[in-house]
């Protein structure tokens, strides 16, 4: 009945994915390759969760 009030989990994961990629890019530009790799790996895990959610 009130399904329009529920938050969309895809939207939240998509936002988190974008933020992680942005942080990873900033780390790479700053020369911190180890941090870049960590953030990219986290982003890929979020993307896998995002792809697992049915449309």
Describe the 3D structure.
With 55 residues, the protein is mostly helical. The protein has one domain (7-52). Helices cover 75% and strands 0% of the residues. It contains two helices and no strands. The protein has helices spanning 9-29, 33-52. The longest helix has 21 residues, at 9-29. The two termini are 20 Å apart.
Write the layout of secondary structure elements.
Layout: H1 9-29, H2 33-52
Helix pairs in contact: 1-2
Main sheet characteristics: none
Task: Tell me the number of helical segments per DSSP (H or I, 4 or more residues long).
Answer: 2
Task: Report the radius of gyration as a whole number of Å.
Answer: 14 Å
Strand content of the residues, in percent? under 5%
Order of helices and strands: HH
Strand runs, count: 0
- Count of spatially separate domains: 1
Query: What share of the residues lie within helices?
Result: over 70%
Q: Which residues form runs of ≥5 with pLDDT under 50?
A: none
Could you report the average pLDDT, rounded to the nearest whole number? 92
State the separation between the terminal residues, measured CA to CA: 20 Å
Structural class: mainly alpha
Shape: elongated
């Amino acid at each position: 009945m009130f399904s329009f009030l529920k938050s969309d989990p895809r939207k939240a994961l998509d936002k988190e994915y974008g933020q992680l990629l942005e942080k990873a890019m900033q780390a790479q530009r700053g020369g911190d390759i180890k941090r870049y790799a960590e953030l990219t790996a986290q982003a890929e895990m979020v993307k896998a969760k995002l792809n697992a959610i049915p449309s």
